Amino acid sequence: MTNSIDNSPASSRNNSPMSHTEASTASSTTEKVALSLKKRHQKEKRFKSIGLFAVLFGFMLVVILIGDITSKALPAFHQHWVKLDVNYQSDWLSVDDSSTQQVLAKQLKSANYRKVLKNSVYQMFSTSTGKKLSRKEKRQLFKLFSTNAEFTIKDALIAAPNQLNKQVTVWVRLDDDVDSYLKEDFAVGEAGLRITKQQAMWLAQLATEARIESRFNVSFFTASDSREPELAGIKGALMGTLLTMFVTLLLSFPLGVAGALYLEEFAPKNRITDLIEININNLAAVPSIVFGLLGLAVIINLFGLPRSAPLVGGIVLTLMTLPTIIIASRAAIKAVPPSLREAALGLGASKMQVTFSHVLPQAMPGIITGAIIGIAQALGETAPLLMIGMVAFIVDVPTSIVDSSTVLPVQIFLWADSPERAFLAKTSAAILVLLTLLLVINVTATVLRSKFEKK
Amino acid sequence: MNTIDIKQNEPSQVELNQVELTQTVGNIYADDAKMSIRNANVHYGDKQAIHNVSLDLAKNQVTALIGPSGCGKSTFLRCLNRMNDTIDICRVTGQLMLDGEDIYAKELDPVLLRARVGMVFQKPNPFPKSIYDNVAYGARIHGLTNNKTELDEIVETSLQKAGLFNEVKDRLKDPGTGLSGGQQQRLCIARTIAVSPEVILMDEPASALDPIATAIIEELIDELKEKYTIAIVTHSMQQAARVSQHTAYFHMGKLVEMGKTEDIFTRPSHKLTENYITGRFG
Known about the structure:
The complex is a heterodimer of chains A (455) and B (282). With 455 residues, chain A is mainly alpha-helical.
């Protein structure tokens, strides 16, 4: 033993790093380590590059996804308007211009604006070309404008009744097919686009007269769903989503946190608690459409709550979100150091005081993270909402949790299913709105979490 | 050479187990007992952690509980304010009295008991709140005062008694977790004092601290005994000798010997005690 110890410094000094083969008691360990070290470093490098590749790949997918959706969505954010010379002739409107102002105001509300629009448009084009339009041409010409155009000119006259019997210029929306044609510049007559050569000529004429203008699509954010793509907006679905999420958060957060606190802090540890725990974990894995069926069978049919309402949607999504929140909250509560509980207990705090003034604030960041994951899941959920009728075509913007409404993902699904070309861009735009909403929720959660962590 | 010597003299574990532990030697009684424990047994499930321990905690004096790791001294200490209630499988039997009142009586609320018997833990565990809130917390939850100035006073006197006030008076709003280890432990003591308990239990309060902080804590314990009855668990025999008036030596869940500190450390009656305090094992 003593021999080797005496020898080892000398032998290691003699050993050049090259002579691996020479067996020496002291230096062999170093050499062996050096040998394996190279391998270990290589392994580390390999793992690092794989990890980096995975991250970059994921990032690239996100960029492609967002880029693709954004580029497809952009056309939805503007639309084309046309300037018309509208002739508010009282005989076209079939109102009596000699009657008193009050009677006239009443008559103007139910006057025949379609005739005004038609005749004004026919007049515009027949004078510019100098020949009378055929019946077929008239029909094609009228199709250039949105069905909403007659209401636009109605609103313009009601806003300024003194324009009666005068010719004024009014901006109206173009039809969605025309809008798509102007945005994407397709060859006329291409399959799927319903623009005739004649219509294309008229549009060219309008363009040269500087009567066509592209404007920011305000109605996309202020209107609800519509059969006409140029009028369809996201507001109804957005409000529906917000109301549904409001109900979901209001129900699932307190219930989830209370459940987690009870199970972690108060419940006796026995078989029943174990059984409940297993069932909660299983519940998190149940396909969401099953919750939709439950909502239909129990909440709507048994309890008689209104169909298609955010209230019911919120309850169904709560069932889906609850297990996620409970599991995350329990993990967060478990992670609170026991020394903190002991400190408070040792001072004579009751169980309730320990739980609410120490455990809960400490666990809050984790609980919020769990809640956000749950809410984000619920935000993108479509299947269970289909079962409870939130897939209906709803034109009104919901204002309360019992109004009929739809939600963003369902709206996306509906638009993606529509044949009109203009809905393609609307679908992408709606996805962008959904993603933005998700981002807003995440940022809010991050801010809240850091606020709790600072405390 | 020395180590070999000790090895030869050290009693093996078998030998130790053979030592009869039927009765505690020394004197377990105090003239003026604040707490009296008679025949306390503690079980964790099927395992018995404390066997028939009886002793008195003398009023306004410091009682040190010493013994090798796992001997049950911490478990015993935690019985004195029912901290073991939080452990489901823990079962305590015997008579544990505070001022002649059974602290395990059904009608006694452990919350009230813990307000009278405070506890300082091994690792400093201030709440993640401000220094002020840490000290004020106990007074607040027990509703000792609703008055802001009174609360301020409680906080100040408690911090002063814990010898921390001068160091932190300008930063009472700073988080308690930002203090040094020794300051944190004094903050925990201040927090305990703020509730005005009658007994303070200390579970190795200086084991995580450096010698200077330890010295401050020991000095503090000496001052605190004027007002409070103190029981302290410690691994440091020097510390036990310095701060305590009575010492109880625990071994494998049994109370081997108890008596005046100077007697235990100069003339231990039991072989096990002698072996432990001379550093032969433990």
